[in-house]
Design brief:
The protein is an all-beta fold. It has a single domain, classed as Methylamine Dehydrogenase, Chain H, CATH 2.130.10. Helices cover 0% and strands 49% of the residues. The chain has no helices and 39 strands. The strands form eleven sheets. Strands 1-8-7-6-5 form a five-stranded antiparallel β-sheet, with no helix packed on it. A five-stranded antiparallel β-sheet has the order 2-4-39-38-37, with no helix packed on it. Strand 14 and strand 15 form a beta hairpin. The protein is globular. It starts with a strand and ends with a strand.
Length: 413
């Protein structure tokens, strides 16, 4: 079932940007709600994950539930040129036997314009799927299940989305499954007959030896190494870890922990977002909790001269009432090299979450500022941002909006 709905852009809310430094800086920020989910029959509800752009400037994402079968959707938002956007449901899950349900994580395009993603449930085994959406000449899309996750020792519950390597193979994580039931890293390789073969690259073993429960997706560096986070576990503690996957010369992969988070009122706890890399090979991410105020942190990991990795805390959330808390959506870079992200709560005066930015200081370190505090009706958990060429920020809220079922928003600096 395909659903189209035209929503007029909501009024612009002008707020003040207050930078957290000794000099208070004020700048005009505009927020627009581009779409309110749940306004028509068959629409998606509760959007999740980070949005992606195509080359034409259209936005794509998923909703966890809703659609024609109430099991979630893939949607597209197209700008109309007059400030409005048109939403179209490209696919409603549960439309065929053994279909995936409850899509999660960001989508990804291949070079031919096909979309790929994951569902955390459904499939022939009931433990989630990897799917592909192929555009047809008449504007419709066809869904194919590339892989259905099964019971142990296979992984189950993929939630973090997928990435491609240069050869066209897909990589991702499952939050659960594997022989230890603590999650996996997997690879899907296309076969010549159109099917895909799955290979488990790593089975997480649990705390005191390894991480467990990887909720986020992966990122490649220039050398072909993979990096990710686990929500729990760690070599000594149980508050999450950052791991690296290194390909071996004769085949296979080695996994090692770069950092295990500590519950010491300084370090972050429980990371659940994807990492980003800068040009120097440093890793940046967030934790949902931890730090001196237990509001989560933004952290950086960089290699020291001897090859070991060192963590630096760039910002502690919850330092005062108007600051955000629980940055579960991670961070991303804009064209100026600033970090931007969202928090699930905090912000003055409503505590519905924030959009924040972080800029490098001339003398070293970073300063953080709240760009926008969510309020009625555009409230609700937000899961990270995507940046367009003009520096505008786009994201979703899981709830809130006119119908209380989530929104797509734009922040214009």
């Amino acid at each position: 079932m395909r659903v189209k709905c035209l929503i007029a852009t909501r009024g612009i809310l002008v707020i003040l940007l207050v930078m957290l430094s000794t000099n208070i800086v004020h700048a005009a920020i505009q927020e627009q709600v581009l779409y309110n989910f749940g306004g028509v029959q068959g629409d998606g509800e509760q959007p999740s994950g980070v949005l992606i752009f195509d080359a034409a400037g259209n936005l794509y994402g998923t909703t966890r539930i809703g659609g024609a079968n109430e099991w979630g959707t893939v949607f597209e938002l197209t700008p109309n040129g007059n400030g409005t956007w048109t939403e179209e449901v490209l696919y409603s899950f549960g439309s065929q036997p053994h279909d995936g349900i409850e899509p999660s994580g960001a989508l990804v395009f291949d070079s031919a314009g096909n979309l790929y993603g994951t569902t955390q449930s459904g499939g022939t085994g009931g433990f989630g799927t990897v799917f592909e959406l192929t555009p047809n000449g008449n504007g419709s899309w066809t869904e194919s299940i590339l892989y259905s996750f099964g019971s142990a020792p296979d992984g189950n519950g993929p939630t973090g989305g997928l990435i491609f390597d240069a050869a066209g193979n897909l990589y991702g994580t499952t939050q659960y499954g594997g022989p230890y039931a603590y999650g996996t890293v997997f690879e899907l390789t296309p076969n010549s007959n159109g099917t895909w073969a799955e290979q488990i690259l790593h089975n997480f073993r649990g705390f005191k030896t390894d991480g467990r429960y990887p909720r986020a997706g992966l990122v490649f560096d220039a050398a072909g190494n993979l990096y990710g986070t686990t929500f729990n576990g760690g070599s000594t503690y149980q508050y999450g870890a950052v791991f690296e996957m290194t390909p071996k010369t004769g085949g296979g992969w080695n996994e090692g922990l770069l950092h295990s988070f500590i519950n010491n009122n300084i370090d972050g706890n429980y990371p659940e977002s994807k990492l980003v890399l800068d040009a120097a090979g440093h890793l940046y991410g967030t934790t949902s909790l931890g730090g001196p105020y237990n509001g989560g942190v933004v952290f950086e990991l960089g290699r020291k001269a001897g090859g070991a990795w060192e963590e630096v805390i760039l910002h502690d959330f919850g330092t005062y009432r108007s600051d955000g808390g629980s940055p579960i959506g991670g961070v991303t870079f804009n064209a100026a090299g600033d970090l931007v992200g969202t928090t699930a709560n905090g912000g003055s005066p409503h505590n519905y979450g924030t959009v924040f930015g972080m800029k490098r200081k001339a003398g070293g370190g970073w300063e953080e500022g709240v760009l926008y505090s969510f309020s009625e009706p555009s409230n609700g958990y937000s899961y990270g941002l995507v940046v367009d060429a003009a520096g505008n920020l786009y994201g979703i809220t899981y709830t809130g909006g006119t119908y209380g079922r989530g929104t797509v928003f734009e922040i214009t600096p």
